[in-house]
Amino acid sequence: MTQNPLWRAEQIGDGRFTYTPPIKTCVGPESSQFYMGGMAMATHIDAMERHFEKPLLWATIHFLNHGLLGENMELTVEAVSGGRSIVQAMVEMRRGDTVLHRTIAALGARDGEPDRAFVKMPDVPQPEDCPPKPEDAMATGDNLMGLLDRRIALEDTDGGREYMWIRPSFGVPVDAGYLGLISDFFLGAHERTRRGTSLDNTFRLINIVQSDWLLMATQISSFTRGAAQGNAHIFAQDGTLLATSSQTGLLPRPLA
């Protein structure tokens, strides 16, 4: 039997879910662990796919407030539009009266057009031939950052590019939720964006292929008005394009 993923919320009613984040879904200083935005994206995607019994096409999440370790959160999922094959939906996650995240999305499929991928995986060394990414300053043996094996295949600071292999130490199948989680590593791709604050993440699901390692090819587009903007492609180890994402994040204030 497949174990439920870390981000799976408990369904308590029609379109209603509850979730309490464990330490493995959190990041941040040891004294103030908070629920990672990518984990929130995964929770929202998983809840929508289960509720509508349809595969995700795309989702955009707005990060409004931090959820904290061990705090109870409630999710509501609702359809806002749709037809015979596609449903457009909205998710809201709250802690009491505080809205933490809002997601809009579309789910479903339309038959009749063959699948094609036009973006190719870059030519990079295999993960075992790449150096480890330096450990996150706030990683612990228990939180999320301590549970991910990350290898750098390319780091081009001047060009705003990072190609990173990533593999979790916890068992999880490649699905829309897991890919949504991985897509939120955008701000780790450049030395100037680390410790920044994500404002949003738009995730588009292309394909599902089981793969031990995933490659996240990130391109920072610009630093504009104190914010970083860019996009990423996620590939299976065999080169299959799995997902794309784009994000805006506030640059951290320079350290004194």
Could you name the key traits of this structure?
single chain, 256 residues, mainly beta, twelve-stranded antiparallel beta sheet, 14 strands, 42% strand, globular
Amino- and carboxy-terminal Cα gap? 51 Å
Which term fits the overall shape?
globular
Sequence of secondary-structure elements: EEEEHEEEEEEHEEEE
Q: How large a portion of the residues is in β-strands, by DSSP E? A: 35-45%
Provide structural commentary.
The chain is mainly beta. Helix 1 (37-52) packs antiparallel against helix 2 (176-183). It is globular, with a radius of gyration of 18 Å. The longest helix has 16 residues, at 37-52. A twelve-stranded antiparallel sheet has the order 1-2-6-7-8-5-11-14-13-12-10-9, covered by helices on one side. Strands 3-4 form a two-stranded antiparallel ribbon. The protein contains two helices and 14 strands, in the order ββββαββββββαββββ.
Question: SSE layout and pairings?
Answer:
Elements: E1 10-13, E2 16-19, E3 26-27, E4 34-35, H1 37-52, E5 56-63, E6 73-82, E7 86-95, E8 98-108, E9 148-156, E10 161-168, H2 176-183, E11 197-205, E12 214-224, E13 227-236, E14 241-250
Antiparallel strand pairs: 1-2, 2-6, 3-4, 5-8, 5-11, 6-7, 7-8, 9-10, 10-12, 11-14, 12-13, 13-14
Helix pairs in contact: 1-2
